[in-house]
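comment on this one:
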Amino acid sequence: MTINVIEPVADFAPVNERGGQLAMLEGFAEEHLQERRERLAATEMKELDLFSVRPTLSEHHVSQLRTALAISGDLEPVLVLRRGGQVFLIDGRHRVAAYAASGRAKSVPVAYFEGSPREAVIEAWTVNSKPTLTLDNQQRQDGGWELVKLGSFTSKEIERAVGISKAQVTIMRRAFRTLGTEAYEIAGWWRARRAAFDGGGGIPNDIDEEEWLNEQAQAHADKMAKAFSTKLAANPELMARTLEVYMGRNLLQLVRDLRGLTYELEDDLEDDDIPF
């Protein structure tokens, strides 16, 4: 489900020309407010093409941010500019979408940009042009295992550091206890997991199955994102036809499973977050 919670500004022409939008912002008087709210609703933030560095949202990245939000409780504040009694989003479209998809669109943390509109344009490109190397699912799992082996960190610290769930940290701690000193010789969570739990090892099946599915789904999603970027996620009809060909006779079961996941998503959202 694609959720568009940021309303484009349509009160000024030409809205699709960045030069016109920049002129509009520069025509507003600079605002000096003594009190600024630290959190805003997503619908209070206006989106302009002027600050859009990427043409489309990456649904894969939104999904990753939703996971991080569930674990940490909050994401880094999005960057906004106040002009003419309105708030314009400079950077953070994916974070806003993650809050909305998590049913938390009414309370998004914000940071206020202090410069001019021209400086805000430069800032939007600067923060999005920094080279980053994000960890994929396997690397996050391996990182969690290394931190568990160190024995110096709480579950919450490990969750926040590498972005894995509390249940997953619990499983890793159980594997560590099962393996004993052998654990220090095993690099990589998948190898450690097989060594600890192959043959029954006592891990709760209900937690194990759910975590295993989540891990596998995230790993395959990472591979799809690398292979297709946003091409399929941005075109649901193409994705559907692709899956029809790929799934063959299992397509109906896929539809049933997707229907169940959709119901769960709608239960997590408030009415204001669903755009229909």
About this structure: The chain has eleven helices and six strands.
